[in-house]
């Protein structure tokens, strides 16, 4: 795996791996008909937006690292009762 691929597959860096994989599986299942997978794309987009806002807020507050680790994210999602997206 090249450096960029490893970075995208790293749970601590990319919080939306699950959503990304689901949209890719949908594309594979429906022969790359994007219209059939719009719900998966929207879920991925909402995930990225949600975690981007968290990252921006942490940066403003001076919290390092900017993106919470996978364990911290799991804890945060559990505290709010699941994924808000």
Account of the protein in words:
The chain is mostly helical. The chain has four helices and no strands. Helix 2 runs antiparallel to helix 3 (38-61).
Beta-strand residue percentage: under 5%
The end-to-end span amounts to 30 Å
On the 0 to 100 scale, the average pLDDT is 93
Helix/sheet category: mainly alpha
Helix content: 55-70%
Features:
globular, 0% strand, 64% helix, mainly alpha, single chain, 85 residues, 4 helices
Give a short summary of the structure.
With 85 residues, this protein is mainly α.
Tell me the layout of helices and strands.
Elements lengths: L2 H7 L7 H13 L8 H24 L8 H10 L6
Helix pairs in contact: 2-3
